[in-house]
Fold:
Amino acid sequence: MRGARLGVVALGLLAVPLLSSCTGGMLDPQSPRADKVIVLWWVMLGTSSVIFVFLCGLLLWGLRRASRNSARAREGQLNRDRYLVLGGGIALPVTVMVVLMVLTVWAGRSITEAAGSDAVTVEVIGHQWWWEVRYPDTGLVTANEIHIPSGEPVNILLKSEDVIHSFWVPELSGKIDLIPGRTNSLIIEASHPGEFRGQCAEFCGLQHAGMRILVVAEDRDSFDQWVQEQGEPAPALNPADDAQLWEGQQAFLGSACVYCHTIRGTNGSGTLGPDLTHIASRQRLASNMIPNTRGHLAGWILDPQAVKPGTQMPPTQLSADQLDALLDYLESLK
Amino acid sequence: MSQARNPYEIHDYPSRRPTGVGPWTLAFALFGGTIAWTVHLIAGYSVANYMCGDAVAVWILHGLTVVALTVVALAFLTALRVVRHATRLPKGERTPEEDRDQFLASGGLLLAGLGFMAITFGEVAVVVAGCTP
Amino acid sequence: MTASTHGQPVSERLSSLWERPRVIDHIFATVDHKRLGVRYMVTAFVFFLVGGTLAGMMRTQLAVPENQFLGPESYNRIFTMHGTTMIFYFATPMLTGIATYILPLMLGTRDLAFPRLNAFAYWVFLFSGLFIYTSFLVDEVPDGGWFAYVPLTGPNYSQGLGMDFWTLAILFLGISTTAAAINFVVTILRMRAPGMAVQRMPLFLWGVLDMAFTILIALPSLTLATLLLALDRTFGTHFYDPAGGGNPLLWQHLFWIWGHPEVYILLLPSLGIISTVVTAHARREVVMYPLVAVASVAIGILAFGLWVHHMFSTGLDLLPISFFSAASFTIAIPSGISIFAWVTTIYGGRVRFSPAFMFALGFIVTFVIGGVSGVMVAMVPFDWQVHDSYFVVAHFHYVLVGGVVFPVFAGLYHWFPKITGRMTVPTLGHGAFWLIFLGFNITFFPQHILGLLGMPRRVYTYAEGLGWDTYNAISTAGYVVLGLGIIVMVFDFLWSMQRGEEAGDDPWEADSLEWATPSPPEPYNFAHLPIVHSRTPMWLDRTPERGGQLDRIEDPMDDGREVVTTSVLDAAPDAVLRVPEPSYVPLFAALALTVAVVAMLVEVYPVSVAGIVGLGALLAVWLWRSPAPAPERVNQIRDRVHLPDVRIAGPHSLGRWGMIFFIVTEAVLFGSLISSYFLVRGSADEWPLGGIAEPELILPAILTALIVLSSASMFWAQRQVEGSADRNPPLGMLRLALVVSLALGIAFLSLQAYEFHRSEFGPSTNAYGSLFFMITGTHAAHMGVGVLLIGWTLLRTWFVSHEPGQRSDVPNVALYWHFVGVVWLVILSVVYLGVRGL
Structure:
């Protein structure tokens, strides 16, 4: 049957360029733990391909014979039938499955191996639709951007304030859900400094697609320095010296912003939205939807629904001067 | 019209002789392996989920495996015996009930085999992953 | 042609019995499985086209990054309705439709076991589908995903009617699915042609039987899950609410205990279709029949050990979830057996490359890909990566499109000549196949890679520069090809229905009994019911000794709408039954139920109650009289055609079997409820929660006494009936026994109501209260139904006379009553005694 053969060949040809051009994601692991998964993947892909090709080959060869078979050719087939079904249907899967079962549990155990007691712990709390990030050891609070030291396993504790979310940074590790009423844990480890993107993997409502996260791995010194900087409150302002920044701070405290956001060192202590004490140090805004530039920040403050439809942040009415001052102020919060 | 035809000839049933295999034997041959697996899965999952950390848990799991595999083996042997018994005569001389017994007991062989695999896979998990909290 | 017992030619006589002359009766009152089967198929196909259109909108939105075609709200609604439509309103009903049409023909009988129930199931399915789609008209479309995870779908995070539409529609549809499943099980077990013993059943029948059993055991879990969600949403209970002590994971457990077997519910009859098509078109019986038949049973059983497979990333520990990995790996073995059996059959067959066969080939190739990616996602560490990513989307579309849609199309092409009497156009069929096959692979293969690259499911948009753009564009292009293929296929069907070549009875020279009937079949299917002697009667039974014809029951069975029932294992004839007449009651019952459901949606509860009462009244009318042949007629058949064991129905009646399988599914419902209790209790710090006192034991002790006594008096009633096979039971004693049972039942309900009334906590106090009232309340509702049934039976003792030995209402109601009593003992030990740690 020529048509069938062509179809299968076409399918195979389609697969080769598609697979060979893959980069990024879990195929490009940057972590000793994600590495193990990728070993599993290649073993399984290899085995599966062999089985698939064998079966298709058998089918095509059979079809070629079967379109010529006469009724008489069927005699004496019973033994061959039996070998094929028992061999292919029982012996083959049993062998493969035994190997895979051992591999999967072994890999699972080494991935979930506990980190040392001195490992950094990060608490990640899911909200519709952003990530609250806390460092219980140092009391740091930030959002949507997790800094970790590279080359060490880090404990991630996962909780949720509202619905179920799922934490997934494919280059570093598989995903674990954030479930209200439960604390889950996950260990991630970046083998070298770098930035790794991820996003919420469990459907969590309107902006499920806009709930993205960034993991920044840096060497231990930079990480310690980052911790120290993030621990500082926002600088106290003096209206005489920094008139513009002070205006901005007043705009923040005098508008709806303050109901939801905290800036440590000021009276702003809302907790519904991300902590903004060091907002200017973060790379992106709106749970990593847009770059953290002055223009984007302005657009986000004035009309968040245009950037991220459904977000719980309301639009803010500000005069041009107020906005200008507010932007200056926020950009000063390194 | 078929007034003269013998009813046995018309629809094969009931047969001339009993099969010699009781309904409970047949039921055990067919479903024994499956039941063992079901119990192993549910009990194993519960012990692993709620008791791991207790030193005795891992031994309960091993014990479960031993018991389940014994039941599977018994089911398999029973099925094998039924198949042997049902096929002791050459093909043309078997009654439809013997064909039926052979069919059901062969099914029992497969189901027991699958139960064996699933239970063994579970035991592999216990050995490799261990039962630590 | 044999003359009928009534002096008319048989075909005329049978036609007049099996078909009503008025068109309006055909439309609204028919109980003919062929008409209903076609309706199921057409309705399900329309839902398929709608669901496919929704998929097209999603693919359009995702074709390019940052697309503005759909906003998040529309996108969420569309993917929710796409999944819901395809699973609930296309796949299950389509297979139900094919089975409804084919089963009686393949079994060599004249209709399903419960024809009116079949009509009812169809109407409920139709109304449920229309109901959920009215959500578009009122702009309150479900948007929580077809899996509806709580808390997102709970009262706090999903306002509006959207998810209420969803929960009610699913509950509503569940009635239809359960009814169809009971019908299939009883039909296959009891209505096979004489001689079609278990070892001779066509593989399609095995597939449908496994499907129906799996539905009965799996579906109660979904019913319970959606019921609890509806209560949480509407009445403020706390089953899933962590703040009230509930457990959001309970939803996932309940949903997937149904959800994973559901895949196999769809797959098993599909595998059966493939076996049928391979047999007919490779002109050879599928090799190693016992292994393949039992593999299908094994898949249905193992399917229940896989549900946690969907919960690997919920943070459960490695060892517990590895047990489910083990079951997932094991299921590869029976699947492998089936695949290799088909390939081997083809290998040694003489193949006819018809469109049906092409779809079967397409199935094998696609399903193998879906199977191996299924093994991959059963590997826990790999699943942690790809779970909820596009890899999984690709995987289950390979399984569901490859494993279900392709077989459905194969089946439609295969049985089209039987259903319409005309052949399809081969060129169009092949064209459609290649477009669909290639289009499908172009759409879904790249989605594997998208998942590996990190694209999660259910996102309405994605950023540029992640390497996802090309694959998404290819995928969307594939959708267009696939859609073209569907259009060609629909055109082929429509055109051939009118103008195709005449098919004749048996265009494929196939093996099974449906091909022994004319195309399309007569309303009564077979003028003479066939008797079979082999697995492939059309090939092996038509020997020269039998004049080249199938063996058959010589009596045309035309004294009323008669059929023969046979024994479960060996298919030995054991009774003659009459199939009920066409009736408007199923339609009205479905309408009453619809009224109740719509009123629940808008929270007008008096109307809901009225709808339920109407439904109950209609059911009482429905079951008031069952047709049965007169004893003389049974003797006549026994003598004339040598069915030596044929008896009057009585305990052999199909109703008894229907009741048994109804009780099976009810038992699973209570089992799920009790398991939910333990799951919530297991995650609680104290029990009962929130300082509620442990329940007192005096009242439950009295309740237990009442229920045990009532069971005893029902047993007494049962003895009056069953102890007298050839005479009528003493009616006085029977009535007394029924009245005593009724009084005890009412006393139970009154006391229970008193207990509820004086309780210090309510269903919305916390999760303990919710569960306590749910468990005892569900049981009380069953008691209420039982009381009504006993009352109904009592009434019938005055108004309905039975032939001796034919009174089956009392034993059936007694069976139900004993079951409800046993459930009470379980509840007593769990909810009342167990809470004390006794």
